[in-house]
Amino acid sequence: MARCVSLRSVLSSLRSIVAISQRSGVQRCFSHPWMPGSQQHRAFSMHPILCSSSLSNSSAADKVLVHFVNQDGVQITTAVTEGESLLDVVIKKNLDISGFGACEGTLACSTCHLILDENIYEKLDPMVDEEVDMLDLAYGITKTSRLGCQVCVKKWMDGMTVQVPQEIKDMRNAVGSAGSQ
Amino acid sequence: MNTSRVFVFKQLKSLLRVKCSSAAPSNDLRRLTATPGSCPKVCVVGGGPAGFYTAQHLLKAHPAVQVDIYERLPVPFGLVRFGVAPDHPEVKNVINTFTQTAQHERCSFHGNVNVGKDVSVQELQQAYHAVVLSYGAEGNRSLGVPGENLSGVYSAKDFVGWYNGLPSNKDLKPDLSRETAVILGQGNVALDVARILLSPLDILKETDITQPALEALAASRVRRVLIVGRRGPLQVACTIKELREMVNLPGTMPEMVTAEFQGIAEALKDLPRPRKRLTELMLKAAQGSSEGGGAEKRWGFRFLRSPVEILPAPDVSRAAAIRLGINRLEGSGEGARAVPTGEVEDVECGLIISSIGYQSLPIDPTVPFDPRKAIIPNKMGRVQQAAGLYCSGWVKRGPTGVIATTMNDSFDTARSLIQDMETGELDTSAAKMGSQAVTPLLLKRGVNPVSFSDWKKIDTEEMKSGKAAGKPREKMLDVAEMLKAAHS
Ligand SMILES: Cc1cc2nc3c(=O)[nH]c(=O)nc-3n(C[C@H](O)[C@H](O)[C@H](O)COP(=O)(O)OP(=O)(O)OC[C@H]3O[C@@H](n4cnc5c(N)ncnc54)[C@H](O)[C@@H]3O)c2cc1C
Ligand SMILES: NC(=O)c1ccc[n+]([C@@H]2O[C@H](COP(=O)([O-])OP(=O)(O)OC[C@H]3O[C@@H](n4cnc5c(N)ncnc54)[C@H](OP(=O)(O)O)[C@@H]3O)[C@@H](O)[C@H]2O)c1
Ligand code: FES
């Protein structure tokens, strides 16, 4: 019978952890489009070198610092290239939030819901109807909630904190199906 | 050495702490890498969103578990392929994530295996430490009114299956020869069906809708679609994105009955934001309909109407009208109830589509099933009174909720399962054979499973013939054709 777990899988888990653990440093970031994938794969097989080629040529001046507070309340600080969406950041930096960005940024799921600082939220361009349509289905929305795939990081946002809601849920089925007989 | 390295080893240790076998080798790493046959084996029944998301979370949360997905059809993805409307390709992006899960080295896909028929749940339980039932809802609620079986009356499940290429619905040939179609139910499935019936062909022909459906719709004489609900405007089950799509559908205009919206504008202020915005959009559409316009095709909601009887044409060959019972509302808000007034109204129509919900069916006499709720009775995904059995998705919760809802409930089930492994509630000490026990059984029974790489062959062929037709894919409509491509 085949061996239960290959060394390869343990090694790749190890690599994933290296990738995750290095996400807090200032990293070089490529802005080629990301390939979607299951979270565990995103963590190690999609862009294994992305986060490990740290520091070298990146000019800190092009970067915007964003602090993510994840579902467990742990803060992760990451340097982001201006113009990327918050969804891009979560994917590229392997922030590993289960189920995040299911529709890959096409405004069809609301799983990329994030909670922003009030001062940042207020300065953003207002939401288009289609974003509100989807956001309204997200779980636990607040006054400063936005869909991460619709928010582009700009220089002026430097230092902002982004909160990942407790659970990524979509409330569509709670909208109106309390049936009668 | 920096803090990240320390972090790495801490994480590795916690990874290795997961209970994998009863053997006690001298170090954790050896135990994980070299204990033959003792890793937990889980199988998932159903290759839809619930199956894939359950597998995804199990693989992520446990470093050794092996997950096999058994799917009845030769092709994966369940309702993402056979339910989600062809003009919603963005929703189907989840397929990329599912594909990565299927290609994970500890996961394998076994299509063309009808659990309950080709292999029993009990046999799966003997081969695996745990079985997760994620087989969705393959039946539908029936109207229970006379005339339901007349030609021209279809369930939304079959109609959707037809335009989406579900093999069992390929010969549906719905009657699209009359001007008015009535859809019963006001959920998102009802709106999908209305949109497909009225969409300009130019939009549809660039989607993965099947060629026979495209041709039938090209010849369709349906010009007017009424979407009928048993309750009022404040209780519609659809969501705003789908309603907005109807409102913006080129070549159509709304046809509402203004009187049905009496008092609704006044109620707006007390509604929660989602319901308020949905209702405002509906009111706007109702207003638009009273202003008239030149669109050739029309759609509209009708409220407080329940089907009573489907009336046949004089030669009794097909449906010619529907008799609707008029209701009044008792109570208010989401929980308001429809109560019949005793009055009825007949609406002439040639096509009637019942979109009042899908329904799960029992899979195997040994698996508990709640016939009233039509779900597998469970607590947090643990099937009640059935150790080692779990469930996720529509068969666990009932046939409502979008993919994201299904995703969360599947993660919950996976968490329950992992927790049971950790507490020992789920005994994983004995070695299990997994697919090595099941595959020979299947072969002996003349069933030739389709692996994920076999599916990729089908996928490639479908995309190739789609490309030739200017579509993202042309689906194969026949199981035999799929199997031929898969095993080529
Ligand atoms: C018409 C329609 C349109 C929808 N559109 C959207 C949308 O646009 N956006 C959105 O977010 N959600 C949409 N949904 C909801 C979404 O499809 C569901 O939330 C989701 O598919 C439920 O997943 P599931 O895995 O429980 O069921 P399913 O998707 O039904 O998967 C069950 C799988 O099990 C297999 N199976 C059944 N019996 C057996 C057996 N005996 N042995 C082996 N395998 C078996 C089936 O073949 C199927 O592949 C739509 C639903 C419908 C009905
Ligand atoms: N684009 C999308 O996101 C999309 C597309 C399709 C489906 N989906 C999701 O898939 C799920 C299933 O959709 P669905 O439309 O099948 O179900 P649904 O949303 O539950 O709607 C069912 C409709 O049928 C009515 N109904 C139920 N029983 C009835 C009866 N006996 N007589 C008359 N009317 C009856 C309901 O009215 P009452 O309210 O009075 O019970 C309701 O209007 C939903 O969660 C939906 O959001 C999503
Ligand atoms: S990723 Fe789906 S809405 Fe943002």
UniProtKB/TrEMBL annotation, chain A:
It is found in: Mitochondrion matrix. GO terms for biological process: P450-containing electron transport chain. Residues 64-168 form the 2Fe-2S ferredoxin-type domain. GO terms for molecular function: 2 iron, 2 sulfur cluster binding; electron transfer activity; metal ion binding. The keyword Glycoprotein does not apply. InterPro entries: 2Fe-2S_ferredoxin-like_sf, 2Fe-2S_ferredoxin-type, Adrenodoxin-like, Adrenodoxin_Fe-S_BS, Beta-grasp_dom_sf. GO terms for cellular component: mitochondrial matrix. CDD domains: fer2. Coiled coil: none annotated. The keyword Transport applies. Its main location: mitochondrion. Keywords: 2Fe-2S, Electron transport, Iron, Iron-sulfur, Metal-binding, Mitochondrion, Transport. PROSITE patterns: 2FE2S_FER_2, ADX. Its cofactor is [2Fe-2S] cluster. Pfam families: Fer2 (PF00111). It comes from the Eukaryota. PANTHER family: FERREDOXIN 1B, FERREDOXIN/ADRENODOXIN. Belongs to the adrenodoxin/putidaredoxin family. This is 2Fe-2S ferredoxin-type domain-containing protein.
TrEMBL record, chain B:
It catalyses: 2 reduced [adrenodoxin] + NADP(+) + H(+) = 2 oxidized [adrenodoxin] + NADPH. Its EC number is 1.18.1.6. Pathway: Steroid metabolism; cholesterol metabolism. Residues 41-197 form the FAD/NAD(P)-binding domain. Pfam families: Pyr_redox_2. Its main location: mitochondrion. InterPro entries: FAD/NAD-bd_sf, FAD/NAD-binding_dom, Ferredox_Rdtase, Ferredox_Rdtase_adrenod. Keywords: Electron transport, FAD, Flavoprotein, Mitochondrion, NADP, Oxidoreductase, Transit peptide, Transport. GO terms for molecular function: oxidoreductase activity. It is found in: Mitochondrion. Its cofactor is FAD. One of its GO terms (cellular component) is mitochondrion. NADP(+) binds at residues 186-189, 230-231, 242, 401. FAD binds at residues 50, 71, 79, 115, 394, 401-403. Belongs to the ferredoxin--NADP reductase type 1 family. This is NADPH:adrenodoxin oxidoreductase, mitochondrial.
